[in-house]
Amino acid sequence: MATSEQKAFCVLQFAKTESVVTVQRAFRIKFGCDPPSDNNIRRWFHQFEDTGCLCKGKSTGRPRVSEEDVERVRESFTRSPKKSVNLMIDGVISDLLLVTMNSVFIYSIN
Description:
Largest sheet: none
Number of helices: 5
Distance between the termini: 23 Å
Helix content: over 70%
Protein backbone atom coordinates (compact mmCIF):
# COMPACT_ATOMS: atom_id res chain seq x y z
CA MET A 1 0.00 0.00 0.00
CA ALA A 2 1.47 3.32 -1.06
CA THR A 3 1.77 6.13 1.45
CA SER A 4 0.34 9.58 0.81
CA GLU A 5 3.86 10.85 0.12
CA GLN A 6 4.43 8.12 -2.46
CA LYS A 7 1.11 8.79 -4.18
CA ALA A 8 1.83 12.53 -4.32
CA PHE A 9 5.29 11.83 -5.74
CA CYS A 10 3.78 9.65 -8.48
CA VAL A 11 1.13 12.22 -9.39
CA LEU A 12 3.66 15.07 -9.60
CA GLN A 13 6.12 13.01 -11.63
CA PHE A 14 3.39 11.85 -14.00
CA ALA A 15 2.22 15.45 -14.47
CA LYS A 16 5.80 16.42 -15.42
CA THR A 17 6.75 13.48 -17.61
CA GLU A 18 3.47 11.89 -18.75
CA SER A 19 5.35 8.59 -18.70
CA VAL A 20 4.45 5.81 -16.30
CA VAL A 21 7.77 4.04 -16.89
CA THR A 22 9.71 7.20 -16.00
CA VAL A 23 7.60 7.62 -12.85
CA GLN A 24 8.25 4.01 -11.85
CA ARG A 25 12.02 4.39 -12.36
CA ALA A 26 12.12 7.60 -10.31
CA PHE A 27 9.97 5.96 -7.62
CA ARG A 28 12.34 3.00 -7.32
CA ILE A 29 15.34 5.36 -7.00
CA LYS A 30 13.67 7.65 -4.44
CA PHE A 31 11.94 5.09 -2.22
CA GLY A 32 14.07 1.98 -2.82
CA CYS A 33 11.11 -0.37 -3.25
CA ASP A 34 8.89 -1.73 -6.00
CA PRO A 35 6.88 1.01 -7.70
CA PRO A 36 3.09 1.04 -7.96
CA SER A 37 1.48 -0.45 -11.05
CA ASP A 38 0.82 1.68 -14.11
CA ASN A 39 -2.92 1.45 -13.44
CA ASN A 40 -2.52 2.84 -9.92
CA ILE A 41 -0.37 5.74 -11.08
CA ARG A 42 -2.88 6.69 -13.78
CA ARG A 43 -5.83 6.25 -11.39
CA TRP A 44 -4.21 8.50 -8.77
CA PHE A 45 -3.44 11.12 -11.42
CA HIS A 46 -7.00 11.15 -12.76
CA GLN A 47 -8.41 11.18 -9.23
CA PHE A 48 -6.26 14.22 -8.43
CA GLU A 49 -7.33 15.92 -11.67
CA ASP A 50 -11.01 15.28 -10.94
CA THR A 51 -11.15 15.98 -7.20
CA GLY A 52 -7.94 17.83 -6.35
CA CYS A 53 -7.33 15.26 -3.63
CA LEU A 54 -5.74 11.84 -3.22
CA CYS A 55 -7.88 11.05 -0.19
CA LYS A 56 -9.94 7.91 0.06
CA GLY A 57 -13.63 8.45 -0.47
CA LYS A 58 -16.00 7.90 2.41
CA SER A 59 -16.99 4.26 2.65
CA THR A 60 -20.63 3.43 2.21
CA GLY A 61 -20.80 1.64 5.55
CA ARG A 62 -23.41 -0.89 6.41
CA PRO A 63 -26.07 -1.34 3.75
CA ARG A 64 -29.51 -0.07 4.63
CA VAL A 65 -32.64 -2.19 4.42
CA SER A 66 -35.33 -0.42 2.44
CA GLU A 67 -38.96 -0.34 3.50
CA GLU A 68 -39.82 -2.12 0.24
CA ASP A 69 -37.58 -5.06 1.17
CA VAL A 70 -39.06 -5.27 4.66
CA GLU A 71 -42.57 -5.24 3.23
CA ARG A 72 -41.69 -7.86 0.59
CA VAL A 73 -40.33 -10.25 3.24
CA ARG A 74 -43.30 -9.58 5.51
CA GLU A 75 -45.72 -10.41 2.69
CA SER A 76 -43.78 -13.57 1.88
CA PHE A 77 -44.04 -14.79 5.48
CA THR A 78 -47.73 -13.87 5.64
CA ARG A 79 -48.54 -15.68 2.40
CA SER A 80 -46.75 -18.92 3.21
CA PRO A 81 -45.27 -18.95 6.73
CA LYS A 82 -44.07 -22.57 6.80
CA LYS A 83 -42.42 -22.41 3.39
CA SER A 84 -40.79 -19.06 4.19
CA VAL A 85 -39.41 -20.29 7.51
CA ASN A 86 -38.02 -23.46 5.91
CA LEU A 87 -36.31 -21.45 3.17
CA MET A 88 -34.93 -19.04 5.75
CA ILE A 89 -33.56 -21.90 7.87
CA ASP A 90 -31.96 -23.50 4.80
CA GLY A 91 -30.30 -20.16 3.99
CA VAL A 92 -29.05 -19.66 7.55
CA ILE A 93 -27.68 -23.20 7.72
CA SER A 94 -25.88 -22.89 4.39
CA ASP A 95 -24.42 -19.50 5.43
CA LEU A 96 -23.31 -20.95 8.77
CA LEU A 97 -21.72 -23.91 7.01
CA LEU A 98 -19.86 -21.60 4.63
CA VAL A 99 -18.54 -19.44 7.49
CA THR A 100 -17.44 -22.54 9.41
CA MET A 101 -15.66 -23.98 6.39
CA ASN A 102 -13.92 -20.65 5.79
CA SER A 103 -12.78 -20.51 9.41
CA VAL A 104 -11.41 -24.06 9.27
CA PHE A 105 -9.61 -23.32 6.00
CA ILE A 106 -8.03 -20.11 7.31
CA TYR A 107 -7.03 -21.84 10.56
CA SER A 108 -5.42 -24.73 8.66
CA ILE A 109 -3.36 -22.31 6.53
CA ASN A 110 -1.96 -20.50 9.55
